[in-house]
Specification:
This protein has a domain at 4-70. Helix content is 26%, strand content 18%. It has helices at 4-24, 36-42, and strands at 29-34, 49-51, 54-58, 66-70. Strands 2-3-1-4 form a 4-stranded mixed beta sheet.
Length: 108
């Protein structure tokens, strides 16, 4: 049997996640996805109703995380922010003592 305080904290987090999802999306959540390990650790069964209208499902997610499951398609058209990749290459050697071997620095 799982520690009831851990189960209670997870149920609270599930409820908060479902509420946030439903406020921010047109689709309604129907379940919580957990890694198989987490389901066993918490003592949940596949398909068990844990909150009104919310069932628990095993998915291939990472242990320690849960996912809100819904049938709706979220807005994938949002522009993803592009990050500029900058390579930083030093042109001078800064001495750090005798512990590092000396290197020849080449500028490309």
């Amino acid at each position: 049997m799982a520690d009831t305080s851990k189960v209670a904290k997870n149920l609270q987090a599930f409820q908060m996640g479902v509420n946030i999802h439903d406020q921010n999306n047109e689709c309604t959540a129907w379940g919580i996805g957990l890694a198989h390990f987490d389901m066993e650790r918490l003592g949940f069964d596949e398909g068990e109703t844990i909150l009104p209208g919310i069932v628990i499902q095993t998915d291939g997610g990472t242990s320690g995380n849960f996912r809100i499951l819904c049938d709706g398609e979220h807005d994938n058209a949002l522009e993803e922010s592009e990050e500029e990749v900058v390579e930083a290459v030093g042109t001078q050697y800064v001495g750090g003592g005798d512990t590092l071997p000396s290197r020849e620095i080449r500028e490309f």
